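ENTRY TYPE: paired fold submission
RECORD: A
CONTENT: sequence, then structure tokens
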Amino acid sequence: MTGDEPLEEPEELRTDGGERSSSDLRSDGGAAGADDVALDPWGSSSVSDYRNLFEEFGIEEFDEILPEVPNPHYLLRRGVIFGHRDYRPVAEAMRNDEPFAALSGFMPTGDPHIGHKLVFDEIIWHQQQGADAYGLIADLEAHAARGLTWDEIDEHSRNYLLSLLALGFDPEEGDLYRQSTNREVQDLAFELGAEANFSEFEAIYGFDGETDVSHMQSVVTQMADILYPQLEEPKPTVIPVGPDQDPHVRLARDLAERMRFFKVSKAYASFELDDDERELVAAYYERLDPADFDDDALRCVHVADELERTPLEELDVSPDTLGSVVSKLSEAGKEPVRPRTRFFDRRATDDAFEALIDAIDGEKRVYESHIDAFDLDLEDAESLAKAVEVENGGYGFVPPSSIYHRFMTGLTGGKMSSSIEASHISLLDDPQEGYDKVKSATTGGRETAEKQRELGGRADECPVYELYAYLLAGDDDEFAKEVYDECVDGDRLCGGCKEQAAELMRDFLANHQEKREEVEDLLEQADIELESPRRG
């Protein structure tokens, strides 16, 4: 969940706030023949085909939701933020001026660099749109997963926080904290740990018998971080991260559901169906006419008979699913098939279960482990379940949303890595050093100036153009588009392009470092511990 992992290649960028910049690029951000995707939150992952993230992991394309986002940041407009999980509740809250939150964490293992600025900007922009904004220092993770001493962590943490404040984070309106001193986060982590198990960690993260317990504990702490903004009240919460952090987001969404008192779903009879079974019964409820049966009622046994008469290839389900649903329907016999909304008791207290019974208006039926309501739609039922849960001491967590930015290419090509000095620009680099690094950067140019003029440059493969799109052009889409068009048309040569980018980088670093000095007092006044009481 931290936003500090190495950042690599962009595949393609949008420069005009809408259409793609080059007609021969894939609209899904992928590249034909690219490698498979592997996601590892601790830094070994490499994403060379963003299309696989949509197909393998269920990440949704951000393009589809962009029109629903008010005042979108340039990282959204240009496609640098390429994907999301369930961002619509956040966008809706933003449009309607309703409560929502944004949180991301920073593992203080080195100096903040221009890759981290993406996450800083995303948190700050959400705060400016009305979010309750949270910036956390993942010091427990840095100590457990990377082995840093607390003295090293303190030094790096201060540098991250100064850059975050210098870029515009408002500490009076937002919340800054470190994992190791936030007791509420640690208490929540303990509760969440009761819902997680080692086999899950083994499957998600590849943990084994050699994994130390502190590393596993740091994962549960990150789950608590992600849900922390909802401790006072449930609300949509977005976690801006790189795609390598998606395993954390998926686990947090799952734990948020497990912590809920009630699961709300559609149902068609007194017994429980899984998702595939429910979809099959729903289809036959719509298809079959009760008038075709002897007492003008559609009953479970009627649906079972129809399913058994239908060839399996027409049902598009597995034999196991078909066998299971037919068995359940047959056992229910003459019970009517009738749509209802179900409140399934996951972990509710007795008082909460009774309170929910009282709160449901209209026709209802109460069973040992669930309540069926016949006059409530799904959305109203979700709201009711959440309200009853919160009133009776539960969390009522909304599954957290996430947005994913593209990995940034290193200046020398390949990954941008803090361990490769020439590949990245630290936000603490001397401005002249930043200038020199850009001047020495790899480009997407042709072998000669003549070929560049004839064939045009390869802006989509150029780390220098990426600097313009991600950082140096700022909010000026026209400038980013102008640089792109001049490059691919052969009107811009690499020497002049790098000189302009280098000067802009020098100016940016000088300005940023001046602002860091200006916010020193602001950091001292902020409600966050700058020195850890821990040592080791």
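RECORD: B
CONTENT: sequence, then structure tokens
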Amino acid sequence: MEPVCYTVSRFPCRIGRAANNDIVIPDNSVSSLHAVFALGPQNSIVLEDQWSTNGIYLGTQRVSQLAIDRSLQLVMGRVKLDLALDMADLDTMTAPEPDIAAPAPTFRKISIQPGAASTGAHSAATSPPDGAAASAVGYRVPLPAEPIAGTPAATITKLTGSGRQGIICPHCWHRFDVDEFLFIARHQSLIGDPVLGADAAQRFLPSRFTKEGNALDVAGMSCPDMACPRCHLRIPQAASEMPPLFLSIVGATASGKSYFLTSMTWDLRNTLSRNFAISFTDTDAVNNQILNDFEETVFLHSDEQELVALRKTELQGELYNQVLMDNMLINLPKPFMFTITPAEHHPQYDQVRQSMSRTLVLYDNAGEHFEPGMDSVDNPTTQHLLHSDTIFFLFDPTKDVRFRRKLSGGNDPQLSVSSRVQRQEIILTEMINRIKKYSGMRTGRKTAKTLIILVSKFDVWKQLLDADVPREPWHWDAASNTCALDVALIKNVSFALRQLLEQVCPEVVSTAESFAGEVLYLPNSALGHSPELNDTTGMIGIRPQDVDPYWVAVPMLYFFYERGFIQNVRPENRVRHAETPATCKLSGDIYFVTLPGLKKPLQVPLSYAGSQLRCPGTDMWFSITPGAAAESEHGGAC
């Protein structure tokens, strides 16, 4: 595959993995918004890193801001960029006429060579995950931007702010510069805000500051708290200093999203610190109060034998902020925010302290918000999907009629005849349609986001899965004094679960894989056991003493692994199985793998290339090398 070339003549020009960038590179080593080409003094071109995980390298030197005044070769993640500047524009830039603004320069070419980069200076941060190729064939989806012929300009979306100071509000997702922050007045007489109402403290743009950097309100009081200039909601200081990672949890009504979120955050507080030298703490206790209450109910209840339950997530109420914007009352979901930083005993603390220090922003919506017809201008509660780096879709087998037939005979109240069933692929389709509608994503294109299908309540259906699912898919790495994630094992479990879903509810698989280039299927159980029916209330509940979550942290660990926060098990420490000879043929983004004794070939998505997989129902193991794609027309050995 030849390098892809672009001409850029309008600025700012965004480059990254997300589909709403001007130049899209769908590689996991590239951040959602990785960098921005902006205009500097006298129309010079400046490349600015946007807090990317894997950085930008000029040779062996990581750069955060770089003047493009000559042809350069850069490395962005594991992708090589050749930048060639129009020399006529360069002459204009270096010797402009006095008092005359220089015309905007253009790039003669930006040549993008996917997967071509490998430098020792940053190999630890950008080493490709299992299944990622070392060449162009490693891409799971085609480049969304069309290669150009001639010199048409790229389409540019104008940003409010284009520099490294850009902030994305976790409440309304408005992007703004640091100097646009409003401050929250503290004097008791300064009450009444046009956006938040008569009882809220006033928000103001400061002109005076204390020596500590806090704003002074008109009454002369020091005001440390800041707010978004659009929705006026408070943004914690840590969230303004550390670039965000957005994560959305989607699922049908009563599918257990709140239980999953509660168990996941509780498990992460312990697992990340104990095993991976990563600190996971509340960014702000006020924003996380509801989730903290949930954790106390499930894991810190005073009476472990009492039957308890989490309250249902409502369409409105305490999980939402109501603000007045554009002369409309709008409900915005309250985000849960966590600060992620490497612990000081992290083996690469000095090198990764900046790239790993992030604010994780999570959203929990009522399932009804994802149903068709529930997306409205005054209720944009699911638009965080556009900004999410990864989406978790919670699939509940107890709500699927076909799974229920396979699980009949049990006494789990979730499988009773009276409990609700639902076609969950409709919720998934609605989610996909909203992302496409608001992002302008073209039909037939696939997103660069990783979509993780979480099949919940594993304790109820685990006998249906033909795979070994150990409680902890990670191993101690003596060389680094931290644990390493067994990505090969996780991929194999994902493949086995995909095969099960294809047999029981194939429309879920086809819908997910028509949208995302990488789809991971993971089992989990937020409680680890079946709930009980409360005879008094008629509602189901749980006893805290019985709660034993299973694989609730694994999806987030994989999310962190993709961003270089967690290492993979070293090749020499991986368990390898004897492989059965197989042949494979690539068609589109699916490998057709032929194994002895099978009547029809296995269908293996391109994202599994490089992983050793077990054929479900047999003892045959096989793997697909990424280079097999080059021989796809004639079929090649796997």
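NOTES ON RECORD B: The first helix runs from residue 87 to 94. The chain has four domains: 4-138, 167-239, 243-420+446-573, 583-637.
STATUS: closed
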